[in-house]
TrEMBL record:
Organism listed in the record: Moheibacter stercoris
Name this polypeptide is given: Acetyl esterase/lipase
Domain BD-FAE-like: from-to ranges: 52-248
The keyword Hydrolase belongs to this UniProt entry's keyword annotation: yes
Keywords, in A-Z order: Hydrolase, Signal
Pfam families found in the cross-reference section: BD-FAE
Signal peptide: 1-21
Keyword Hydrolase attached: yes
Amino acid sequence: MKTFKHFAILLLIFTTILSCSDDDSNSPETEPLEAKVMLNVSYGTHPQEVYDLYLPAGRSSQSTKVILLIHGGGWTSGDKSDMNFLVTQLQSTHPEYAIVNVNYVLANDNHYAFPHQFLDIKEVVEKLTHEKEILQIKPEFGLAGTSAGAHLAMMFDSVYDTQNQVKFVIDIVGPTNFYDPFYSSNFPLGGILWNLVDQSAYPANTDYLYVLSPIFHVGNQTAPTAMFYGTDDPLVPSTNAVDYETKLNQQGISNTLRIYPGGHGNDWSQANYAEAWMIFGQYIDTYLP
């Protein structure tokens, strides 16, 4: 009788454990997460310090990496909506990735671009990293920018990414070397940069042409970079691309360069766009697997 009683108690405990296990397996916490879109997420106090976040279904903090998009506009204009077409394409071809489409505070009479726009990107990366468990993402990043946005991506990668979280950069017509004779021949660049720089944030007598040129910051921390430029770009010369490629090669950094017939990326052929998109996808698969 005593033996049967002990057996009954053990059976009850065992049944309870199985019941709890079954309940856990059906609990919401273990179900694959659904896709989620979070628009205009604030990462600072300024109204322009917002981003759109696209989280994929079935995401995990162990595997769901992040593609971060940065719009162009000469540091003074543009909006994250300019990059929405890339969001759609990425969701189609790489649906397992999280996508972040970033706004940064545009330069005007009351706000300087540099270094604050670099720091805006830094704030985004730090916020996403801090919230990795809540969002269920792995904070490793591929950065893709156009024009001024590509400049911000390259500068963030080589100067501000101290944790080596950036695994590749897609540079679409981004300025890399403000010492290029093209600029002095076509723009009063010194004056333009002077008006974009918060001089209180830099040491006295700083050479802004140097300190704001990504080419002079390439080093071991620089991520593999794919570059796309036009032969007749009125804003960013293809020599910027060739010089940057040379510097990356000198440092042993993997890179890809394509220079297409046309201007500032808005008049290339469909075949060129298709090739650029294919290379973008290859960089995602290779450097952010």
